[in-house]
Amino acid sequence: MKNEKLTLQERLDQLASGKNPFKVLEAGCGSSSHVTFKEGTYVVGIDISELQLQRNTLLKERIQGDIQTYAFQENAYDLIVCWDVLEHLPAPEKALKNFFHAVNEGGMILLASPNVTTLRGIITKFTPYWVHVLYARYVVGVETAGTEGNYPFPSYHRWTIAPNAIRRLAEERGLVVELAETYGFDHPEKKHAAFYSLWTLVSNIAHALSFGAIKTDKDAAFVFILRKPRSAGSTAV
Fold it and tell me: Of the ranges 19-33, 50-64, 85-99, 172-186, which is most confident?
């Protein structure tokens, strides 16, 4: 039997099918994209960093601005992509409401972020930035960590971007949750076998003692696809 579960990329390709031009907003675009767009897609990037905007060669249009406060045009984009950005915002719920306003009727919002409800996410939330820099340098092995325009970037990990909180906010605003998944990935400390074994043990204990409220690295990050329904009488295609 054919597997009817579509990949993330296949869902985006279906959304873009037959639309010319297909207009995308990369929110907090950084220097590159995490998804692929069909040829001819009009990609607008917004970022607070002029340096990151200039590094991104995919963009047709560049906006230097803050996605939490920028005055986007209503129903302007067929797809909004915000990948690994929400955790860096002091008020991510403002950015989400901005996206709900800016996405076209029938369009979609793709969100991806680390999961603040994991032990890893909670530790990141409550530790200062200099700890993140040391981790990046001596565990991940990023020599440029902490320098301008390079990983890691300051993180807030607000509770308002926990997966359940995003779902509630989207549904309150009338958006349809097309996809909501958590996933794990290989973390850099795996190369330090003893440390990683200890970390895994502590994470599993925290998960058990919290009766599952604190997630393990199997749920290290999440991805959402939210769809904005067409209003009655809408001529949007």
Answer: 85-99
Strand partners, 61: 44
Q: pLDDT tier at 188 (50, 70, 90 boundaries)?
A: confident
| Chain-centroid distance, C-alpha 21 | 24
- Mean pLDDT on 152-162: 95
The whole-model pTM stands at: 0.90
Q: What is the pLDDT of residues 10-32, one digit of tens each?
A: 777 777 777 777 899 999 998 88
> What is the 3 state secondary structure string of the chain?
CCCCCCCHHHHHHHHHCCCCCCEEEEECCCCCCCCCCCCCCEEEEEECCHHHHHHCCCCCEEEECCCCCCCCCCCCEEEEEEECCHHHCCCHHHHHHHHHHHEEEEEEEEEEEECCCEHHHHHHHHCCHHHHHHHHHHHHCCCCCCCCCCCCCCCCCCHHHCHHHHHHHHHHCCCEEEEEEEECCCCHHHHCHHHHHHHHHHHHHHHHHCCCCCECHHHCEEEEEEECCCCCCCCCC
Gap between the Cα atoms of 167 and 173, Å rounded: 10
- Mean pLDDT, range 54-68, rounded to an integer: 94
Q: Give strand pairing partners of 33.
A: none
Closest CA to 179 of 40, 24, 8, 28: 8
In whole angstroms, give the CA distance from residue 39 to residue 203.
43
Whether residue 5 is predicted with pLDDT greater than 70 in this model: the reply is no
Number of residues in the chain: 237
Q: How far apart are CA 87 and CA 11, in angstroms?
A: 24
